[in-house]
Amino acid sequence: MKETLEALLNEALKKVELAEDERSLQEVRVSYLGKKGPITEVLRGMGKLSAEERPVIGQLANEVRDQIKASIDLKEKELEDIHISKQLEEEKLDVTMPGRPIMQGSRHPLQSVVEEVEDAFIGLGFNVEEGPEVESDYYNFEALNLPKDHPARDMQDSFYFTEELLLRTQTSPVQARTMERHQGKGPVKIVCPGKVFRRDNDDATHSHQFMQIEGLYVDHNVRMSDLRGVLDAFVKRFFGEDREIRLRPSFFPFTEPSVEVDVSCGICKGTGCRVCKQTGWIEVLGAGMVHPRVLEMSGFDPNQYSGFAFGMGVERLAMLKYAIDDIRHFYTNDVRFLSQFKRV
Length: 344
Ligand code: 2NL
Fold this sequence. Notes:
Elements: H1 2-18, H2 22-33, H3 38-44, H4 53-90, H5 109-122, E1 127-128, E2 134-136, H6 137-140, E3 165-167, H7 172-181, E4 188-197, E5 209-219, H8 224-239, E6 245-252, E7 255-264, E8 281-290, H9 292-297, E9 306-313, H10 314-322, H11 329-332, H12 335-338
Parallel strand pairs: 1-4
Antiparallel strand pairs: 2-3, 4-5, 5-9, 6-7, 7-8, 8-9
The structure holds 2-{3-[(4-chloropyridin-2-yl)amino]phenoxy}-N-methylacetamide.
2-{3-[(4-chloropyridin-2-yl)amino]phenoxy}-N-methylacetamide binds at residues 144, 172, 175-176, 212, 214, 216, 252, 254-255, 285-288, 290, 294, 309-313.
């Protein structure tokens, strides 16, 4: 029995030495020390031994088992060290290499223009107001002096959910709501940016969904000359100090009188070119004095208060400022387009 155990030990130690990887070492561990291994078998057969033999063989079997286990553990550590140093040898890391560039986004040009316009008007004492894109027929039309039979209310021109609910066609309802909240007490001095929706076929200059900024100033003695001064200051700040504005008579149901506002052409400086169609002027916005009925419906006494209002398309402003020839560029989100508006 003693010889068997010693032979077992030598055999196991040799196999441990020959093991070349983790897996074959694991096989040695299972075959010698496992539940079905020879050592377990010896320990299990102890009952058959004589009383003198039993402690001697028992101790020897335990020693053999411990030695095999120790040599396997040692070999395991050796194999691991070899593995690590091989890895260190093979995988070279050059810490001086430049890192991968991180893709950096940029503000959408429409958002930049909205912020720029907001900042110009904040500088002139206006507040920014926003409101819902799904509007009631009342705030979108009725409160703006567009009665039920007005052609602009044609079901064909707007996105209706029900008879009473639609996607707003302008941001004016935000102004009507704000006036109402002021309960007939001025001043109200606000700009309202936001998305608006109209049933229209998309092309290079039209979109069924676009952005608008409207402005409203209601107080005692607000005059047309105040409108002119504010718009002149805005245009000079947004397009450049050398630009002029001119007002032409026009019509909107919510303003009286109404005007179209042109800005002098920045390309030809007024002499006439392709951009201004030889006129020297480019139309940028519509405006006027708030209609007394509109003031009245939102709770302001038209004998005590007057006001001006204006509205402009954000895409149009951006297209004029950055010479963009197709409104659809704003919605396609091609990075080659968007990345040109990165702030440096
Ligand atoms: C345009 C013209 C305009 C207004 C919008 C307005 C709002 C209230 C009262 C009166 Cl609450 N007017 N807004 C006035 C004149 C013109 O927009 O061409 N927009 C793109």
